[in-house]
Amino acid sequence: MSSHKSELAATESVLYDHYAAFEAFVKVPPDSSLVPPSPRQAKSRERLHRMPRVPFVELSVDVYDELQRRQAIVAANEAGVKPTVPDALAPREGFHPKRNTTREHLAVLQSSRFRDLVLDVFFEVARRLSQTQAENGAARKTNPNVASPAGPTGPVPKMMSPVTAPAQRQATTANGSTGHSSSNSLSSNGGNNSLGRPLPKTLQSSTVVPMKSTMVERSDDSGDDESVRSVLTSARSTQPASLPQSGSNVTAQKPILHQRGISQDTSQAQNVSPPIPTPTQRSPQHSPQSHAPFSTSSNSSHDRSQAQSDRHATELTTQFEWLQDRHAALQDESTNLKNELLELKAALAQKDDQVRFLKEALENDKRTATEAASSVEEELFRTRAANKKMNAEIQVLETEFEKLRARSTVENDAVHNSEYQQLQQNYDDLRADHEILKIKLQDQHEITEQVRSEALKFIGEMKAVSELETSNRDRTERLSSQVRTLKAENNNLREKLALGHTRDTLSTPDRKELAIRPSHVPASSPFISDNGVISLSDFARFQASIDALVRASADANEVNGRSYFFEMVRSVATCTKTILADADAFEQPDEPTTATRLRSRVSIASNNVVVAAKNHVRSGGLSPLSVLDASVTGLVGSVVDLVKAAKLKEAVSII
């Protein structure tokens, strides 16, 4: 409980600081509560009014931090110093990410929008601090021992938000009247009567006349009862004819009594209580024997007199209570009427302020409209003058134009024939060019249609090949192991074939080390050099792969020979890449671009061989074999040119 109170006290202290800073920033005039807010401000303040305490305190802290940042920038600019504050509020580790984002977005608000936000938060802070102070005051009235938690800046100013001003004024009026009557009633209460109800001191002190006859043989506690009886006896003469005579009925119909002030009770007592009657007036119904001197020895007469006095006192007590309740009801009705009158006056003042505000706004609008109309009239006058001047200039130009047209008519008649002939010749030339371009465009359309038909046919063939491959996929998977074995055997046979070609061309057949040399390349060839960069064995494999590709191309369209043909194509491509890798070390200082050009030609020729091989297979035997041979011939020529330039080197392998 103590921690909660300390937290509330700390929050209230923070709000006091924020209130002082916001008030200094917005500079609210004293009559700001009389000016009604705009619908947007009323809606914003209503949302702030519904916010819980913790989110509102967090919002107030964020707005206060942003205000401090902006004031620091303004102070630095006024002093001619570069501001050291950041462009926006930096995020804090203990805050929620959304709150940090909101704090950063506060820097984007314009000055007017930010001032409206500060003004709304300022009114809400003032309302909450006023409410807290009122609750603390009520707690102090209930328990006087409670200390007053004054803020660091003193009491909260009576600043009301225009959104909640009528309700607060009504609550303040009601509380003020109740508090006043309570304080007066507490100060005017004296003792208690015989029924246990409080009696006003004013009535008791001004109307009590003790009777000697009733004070004999009584204890001290009966003094108050006798005083009450005397007061009620004095009030008997003012009882109306319609008053109830039964004490029980009056008690059942009696409303709740309200406490009243001393001055009100005094005036009521003066209006109700007549002069104190004499004993003869108090008991006009008694027999003449009752006026005789009172004998202390006659107990029966004393008892009868006492019983009659008690009966009269009871009746008068009932009548007095009725009058007291009637007076309280009238007093409450008067208080309510006064409160309603104050509320009506406040509402009327607010309406007058609204009318004055609307009247001023209307006058401002009228003044603005008048100024706008004046400016429009001036602009219209200037426009008319400019229009008149422009019309004069147009007339001058039209006159000059007519003169020029008449002059040009004479000149045009002379040159019309020659220009017409020239235009006719140009037209004929353009027409001939148009016919030529039209023919070319038609040829282009025909070529486009042919290419399109061939492309569609090619796509159909690709679909057929794809379907064929799909149908043979299972068979290919079953025979994949056998194909791998055959590939390994094929590679071995190709190696042996290449070695067999080289054995016939060896110059020293009795040497222990067998050098691999391409077929038809003698040992004394000028293309074999110690400074060569292309391996002799790689060139031999290239020749063997070319021969194998040429032989396999005859069976390329067969089902069994197609895979072998593609394998030979891959072998040619691999051997070509190997030769290119060897030729990377080839450089010519005199002509550095020659080696690059030769390697580029070899690479292009290799790609052409691959494309020609694919087209040969996809054509299904329609493409002539000479096309593939031509691409292979181009590749061989490019490789031979590269070998002539880069030279061969012998690679010795141990057999």
Summarize the structure.
InterPro entries: GIT_SHD, Spa2/Sph1, VBS_C3G9. It contains 19 helices and six strands. The chain is mainly alpha-helical.
Outline the structure in words.
The chain is elongated. It has 655 residues and is an all-alpha fold. It contains 19 helices and six strands. It has helices at 2-26, 39-50, 53-79, 97-105, 111-142, 165-188, 201-207, 212-215, 222-234, 247-253, 262-272, 279-282, 299-471, 473-478, 480-503, 536-552, 559-583, 592-618, 625-646; strands at residues 189-192, 198-200, 513-515, 534-535, 648-649, 652-654. The strands form three sheets. The chain has a two-stranded antiparallel sheet. Strands 3-6 form a two-stranded antiparallel sheet. Strands 4-5 form a two-stranded parallel ribbon. Keywords: Coiled coil. Residues 320-440 form a coiled coil. Residues 132-313 are annotated as: Disordered. It comes from Lipomyces tetrasporus.
What is the secondary structure topology, with strand pairs?
Elements (H helix, E strand, L loop, with lengths): L1 H25 L12 H12 L2 H27 L17 H9 L5 H32 L22 H24 E4 L5 E3 H7 L4 H4 L6 H13 L12 H7 L8 H11 L6 H4 L16 H173 L1 H6 L1 H24 L9 E3 L18 E2 H17 L6 H25 L8 H27 L6 H22 L1 E2 L2 E3 L1
Parallel strand pairs: 4-5
Antiparallel strand pairs: 1-2, 3-6
